[in-house]
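Propose amino acids for all 160 sites.
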């Protein structure tokens, strides 16, 4: 496998931040998310995201780029959480607001994972390819769930 450069290491930091911010979002929006998902389903979401984070950390550790990746993750976490907190405001208990935010968030996550997909192809790394597949499927399902919920809200709230 070719050596991972700083660009790739920083991009891994960005997707690491998406995993970490997702779990933080779930924790903060637990009351709202619990209206539609069981405790087990919520834990599975967090476990999947944590697995992605752990796999990212293992890949960059093996590549010797942990420092650059973690530094970028920290900066990206701050940006993502600021955007999220600005968008959601005081509406953490409103599931529709959470799903609207997740629409933005998951779309951004998917395109960032597309960058990692290209990195994995360039590095000819099967471990990265498997992680990309899993992460893109995860975020796409979250996007689909958000769309489904919001369509239902739009349908049900017409005429309020």
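Proposal:
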């Amino acid at each position: 496998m070719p050596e991972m450069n700083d660009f790739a290491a920083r991009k891994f930091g960005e997707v690491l931040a998406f995993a970490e911010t997702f779990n933080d979002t779930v924790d903060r929006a637990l009351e709202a998310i619990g209206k539609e998902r069981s405790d087990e389903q919520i834990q599975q979401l967090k476990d999947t995201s944590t697995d992605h984070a752990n796999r990212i950390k293992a890949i960059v550790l093996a590549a010797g780029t942990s420092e650059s990746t973690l530094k970028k993750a920290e900066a990206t976490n701050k940006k993502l959480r600021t955007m999220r907190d600005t968008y959601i405001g005081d509406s953490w208990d409103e599931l529709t607001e959470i799903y609207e935010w997740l629409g933005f968030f998951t779309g951004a996550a998917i395109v960032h994972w597309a960058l990692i997909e290209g990195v994995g192809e360039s590095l000819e790394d099967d471990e990265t390819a498997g992680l990309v597949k899993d992460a893109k499927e995860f975020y796409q399902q979250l996007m689909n769930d958000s769309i489904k919920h919001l369509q239902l809200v739009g349908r049900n709230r017409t005429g309020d």
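The first helix runs from residue 6 to 28. The chain has one domain: 19-154.
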